[in-house]
Amino acid sequence: MKISELGEFGFIDAIKEDTLFNPDPVVIGIGDDGAVYKTSAGMEQVAVIDTMVENSHFIIHRTGDWYDVGYKAVASNLSDIAAMGGVPTHIVLSTAIAPDMEVDGLVSLYDGIKDICRSYHVNILGGDTVTSKEGMVITVAAFGEIEEGKAIRRSGARPGDIVAVSHTIGNSSGGLAVLLQNHDGYSQLKRAHRFPVPQVELGRLLVKYNCHSLNDISDGLASESNEIAKASDVRLVLKKEAIPVSDELKAWARESKTNVWKYVFNGGEDYELIFTMEPADFHALQAEYSDVTQIGVVRSGSGDVLLVDGDSESILAPTGWTHF
Ligand code: ADP
Ligand code: MG
């Protein structure tokens, strides 16, 4: 069946069950003009929003299925909340749907949305449903909470801090290349592209261990490290050989005769975290969460990134994924 046969209200009826995964703070959920929820004493609210456009952010059944689109549309938002040190609590979303879209695809899209919301105990509080002449546009806004005064900005990096990242960098854009070439294998890379993991748990530990500056890596390491350098008015000195890269990404770069660093620096959608903090705090963090790697240090400066590669040094330009 196509969405045009089911209609807007039929569609809302079909997806409105199973949307509250932390019902306590919810006063009014889907079904009224607006949703109403309680906030927690002593907490500030974090709001973020992200849009995904068919054939710009994803090519359906090529870079992923509808389930993945729903999952990722939420994941990118939860990642932004993690990158402030917050705990995500609710989402609202807008779906612009082509009239010939199959209802099965929409059910899959919502399965992806609901599965990630369930695993992060995030409520789906409402949304908007409109038609699109061509392709799907999905916009998700997410809300979260952070202890008063504790939100971690990009602008807090200080000379003497270490620079670190979580897990490995570049897998998602490597996975995108593998998917676009319809290549077998490389399941870790494909998975990183289709189902990125918002680093909420690590974001919370970064609050606990007095992290000075924090950014999620949505547009590649070059762009995100420059954002911290600029916002903090410092120089980040990164050591190329220290940057954690997965064996699978190295293998893919070898097989495809592409430069592995292109994925690391200029790829996107890893949704790992890059952060700076005092060395002693970093060591305390590592004792609790081992999968973080120091990749550099913060020096005084005026908003750039120096990349050290063996004996050579160069300024790392902020070239990553950008629209337009
Ligand atoms: P209104 O006309 O008052 O804006 P709607 O008729 O658009 O309300 O929506 C009815 C209810 O369904 C609202 O609670 C709204 O938040 C919810 N809703 C509409 N579209 C979606 C969607 N795509 N996903 C989740 N909830 C939705
Ligand atoms: Mg209304």
Describe the protein in words:
- Strands 8-10-7-11-9-12-13 form a 7-stranded mixed beta sheet, with helices on both faces.
- Helix content is 35%, strand content 27%.
- It is built from 10 helices and 13 strands.
- The chain is of the alpha+beta class and 324 residues long.
- The mean pLDDT is 96.
- The chain is globular, with a radius of gyration of 20 Å.
- β12 (304-309) and β13 (312-315) form a beta hairpin.
- It binds adenosine-5'-diphosphate and magnesium ion.
- The site of adenosine-5'-diphosphate (ADP) has 12 residues, from α1, β4 and β5.
**Low-confidence runs:** none
CATH top level of the largest domain?
Alpha Beta
Cα end-to-end separation: 36 Å
Largest sheet: 7 strands, mixed
How many strand segments?
13
The number of domains is: 2
As for the CATH topology of the largest domain, it is Phosphoribosyl-aminoimidazole Synthetase, Chain A, domain 2
Strand arrangement within the widest β-sheet reads 8-10-7-11-9-12-13
Give the SSE order as H and E letters: HEEEHEHEEEHHHEHEHHEHEEE
Determine Rg (CA atoms, Å). 20 Å
Which small-molecule species are bound to the chains here? adenosine-5'-diphosphate, magnesium ion
Structural class: alpha+beta
